[in-house]
Specification:
alpha+beta, 271 residues, single chain, 4-stranded antiparallel sheet, 12% strand, globular
Length: 271
C-alpha cells in the first residue's frame, strides 16, 4: 500500500526504526532481524549493512551480542537520549505557550568550525535566528536543547534564557522574520499530498495485516519525524491563516492510531 513516491534513505529508516522500536528492547536488535525489518520497506541487505556502518562511525549504534550470542546492534547512550527526545517531540500535542527560549552564544574565531556546528544544531532543534549570536525557540524545547548541546560538547559557548517577547515589532510579525514559514508550510503540504491517500485506503479496510501496517507506519513516521523540528511549534495566533500544520498533524496521528498496533505485531525479534 505504499503510495509515497520517493524511496526513503536507509540510514534514516534505521534511525526511525530504532526510535520507534529498538530503544524499547531489553537488548540489542539482531542483525538478521534488522535486515528483515528493513526488507519490508524495500531496503536490501547490502544497503542495511552500509547504513549501519555509517551509523557506527557516527557513534549512534554499538555492536553487541544478544543473550543467545547473535550479532546485533544497540543504541549508544547519546543516541538513546537523542531518540527519547525525538520521540517526545514527534508525538507532542500542539501548545499555546508563548514563553521563549533564547540561546546566546559566542565562539572564538579560532574555533569557527564549532560555530558552524552550533548554528546547525540550533537550526535542527527548530531555533530561528533573531540576531547574530542570538537564536530563539519556544521555551518547551529547553530540556532537549540542553541535552543536545551537552552531547556535542557545545554548552560552554552558550547561555540560555527564558522570557517574553516585549516588542517593539509585534510578535506575529517578528516570527515571520525569525523563521521561513512559507518553506515550512510547503513541507506540511507535501506530507499531506503524499499520505492522505494512504490514510483513506486504510480507513476503507477492516483488516490490518501486520507487515503492510508496519511498512506504511514506518514510512509515514520516517517522513513525519523531521517536520516537528523544521516547525518550531508556534502558538496558533502567531501563524498565517489556513496554516497546514494542524491538518498534517491530524493526518499523522490518524495514521499512527490506525497502524501502530498492527505494525507492532510485525516487530517481533526472533532472538
Amino acid at each position: 500500500m505504499i503510495n509515497v513516491s520517493d524511496q526513503r534513505a536507509p540510514r534514516s529508516l534505521i534511525v526511525t526504526l530504532y526510535g520507534a522500536y529498538g530503544r524499547h528492547l531489553p537488548g540489542p536488535l539482531p542483525v538478521a532481524e534488522l535486515i528483515r525489518l528493513l526488507a519490508a520497506v524495500g531496503v536490501d541487505a547490502p544497503s542495511v549493512r552500509s547504513a549501519v556502518s555509517r551509523l557506527k562511525r557516527r557513534g549512534m549504534l554499538v555492536p553487541a551480542r544478544t543473550a543467545t550470542g547473535a550479532a546485533g546492534y544497540e543504541l549508544s547512550p547519546g543516541a538513546r537520549q537523542l531518540l527519547e527526545d525525538t520521540g517526545r517531540r514527534v508525538h507532542a500535542a500542539p501548545s499555546d505557550e508563548e514563553d521563549w527560549l533564547l540561546a546566546v552564544f559566542s565562539v572564538p574565531e579560532t574555533e569557527r568550525q564549532q560555530r558552524h556546528v552550533l548554528r546547525t544544531r540550533l537550526a535542527r532543534l527548530g531555533f530561528g535566528a533573531a540576531a547574530p549570536g542570538v537564536w530563539i525557540a519556544p521555551a518547551r524545547v529547553h530540556e532537549e536543547t540542553r541535552h543536545s548541546l551537552s552531547r556535542l560538547g557545545l554548552e560552554s559557548y552558550v547561555d540560555l534564557f527564558r522570557g517574553d517577547h516585549l516588542g517593539y515589532t509585534p510578535t506575529e510579525q517578528a516570527v515571520a522574520r525569525w523563521w521561513d514559514l512559507d518553506a515550512i508550510a510547503v513541507r506540511y503540504q507535501d506530507f499531506l499530498a503524499r499520505h492522505t491517500g494512504m490514510l483513506r485506503a486504510w480507513e476503507q479496510r477492516e483488516d490490518t495485516p501486520a507487515e503492510e501496517a508496519y511498512r506504511d507506519y514506518l514510512l509515514a513516521l520516517d517522513a513525519w519525524r523531521e517536520l516537528p523540528y523544521a516547525d518550531p511549534g508556534l502558538p496558533p495566533r502567531l501563524l498565517p491563516p489556513d496554516w497546514p500544520g494542524p491538518r498534517a498533524t491530524a493526518l499523522f496521528h490518524a495514521l499512527r492510531d490506525r497502524l501502530r498496533e498492527g505494525a507492532s505485531r510485525f516487530v517481533t525479534p526472533t532472538d
